[in-house]
Design brief:
Elements lengths: L2 E12 L3 E13 L4 E5 L6 H8 L7 E6 L2 E2 L7 E4 L11 H7 L8 H14 L15 H14 L4 E5 L7 H18 L2 E6 L2 H7 L2 E5 L6 E6 L11 H26 L3 E3 L5 E3 L9
Helix pairs in contact: 2-4, 3-4, 6-7
Length: about 280
């Protein structure tokens, strides 16, 4: 049955500005084993959607259901992977993954075998005794992915997990993530601000408007995995989606910076009073 989001709305209260609507009437469904990306400008409610699906935040209206049961609290069936890897710095890589298995009724040697097998999936088998400070940003995030997978959740909720790594590492992790989820067949809801990332990873993507976030359109991506961002067919799709998103990014820039911005032909946002003929 998968994940069902129905008529979801959420606002937050701020003393200085009052009620801020973040999500407005969002509805979609994911099938078991589907990899979906949520794409949109900053502040459009992507992370809020993920936190509601994870049971960390309650919606004002609507619901999130997993296999027909309404989400009301966190559950090991729904694991969130955040931007920061959130590893325990005093534990080794292996101990960090073993921690996720602490409450499972499995014998200790079996837990260790499970943890090592998932670390090998993310190519960290040689680093099981390393501590987080000895790892690169990409390696830390791979530990977080291995830890999440070791819990055997139904659904993985990934909140821009690659936003803090360099471009070269990100390209490598895109390939590895595709391979891992092809093998594990997990249902994934992946939040990103990158069009290239969304088109590379997703079976289906939902493009959100500027705040309050609504689904502007839904795009199925019918290309087989693994994909490369530089594939000409993907680049064509990226360009089409970017064109639709440009105005939403412009709205966000105007609101957040409190300056009248305009979009140049090259897709760059510049202050209105500095736009010296760039659209000519």
């Amino acid at each position: 049955m998968g994940l069902k989001v129905e008529n979801l709305s959420k606002s937050f209260w701020r003393k200085d500005v009052g009620n801020i609507p973040v999500l407005e009437d969002v509805s979609f469904e994911l099938k078991d084993g589907e990899f979906a990306c949520v794409l949109g400008p900053s502040g459009c409610g992507k992370s809020t959607l993920l936190n509601i699906a994870g049971g960390l935040v309650k919606p004002d209206k609507g619901s999130v259901c997993v296999d027909g049961s309404r989400v009301s609290e966190p559950s090991p069936e729904r694991v969130i992977i955040f931007q920061e890897p959130t590893l325990f710095p005093w534990m080794t890589v292996l101990e960090n993954v073993l921690f996720a298995l602490k409450t499972k009724p499995i014998k200790k040697p079996d837990k260790q075998d499970i943890a090592i097998s998932f670390l090998r999936k993310v190519h960290l088998g040689k680093f099981i005794n390393a501590h987080p400070h000895e790892l690169s940003a990409g390696m830390k995030q791979r530990v977080a992915i291995a830890r999440a997978l070791a819990m055997e959740p139904k659904i993985l909720l990934m909140d821009e997990p690659l936003s803090l790594v360099d471009d070269q590492t990100r390209f490598m992790l895109h390939y590895e993530i595709q391979q891992i989820f092809k093998e594990t067949k997990k249902t994934v809801l992946f939040v990103t601000s990158s069009v290239e990332e969304a088109v590379c990873l997703a079976d289906r993507l939902f493009v959100f408007s500027a705040r309050p976030g609504k689904i502007l359109f839904e795009q199925k991506i019918g290309f087989s995995h693994p994909r490369r961002e530089t594939d000409p067919q993907l680049v064509f799709l990226q360009d089409n989606i970017s064109t639709i998103l440009e105005r939403e990014f412009e709205k966000t820039a105007k609101e957040e910076m409190d300056i009248e911005y305009v979009l140049t032909k090259s897709g760059v946002l510049v202050p209105f009073d500095r736009n010296l003929g760039s659209n000519i």
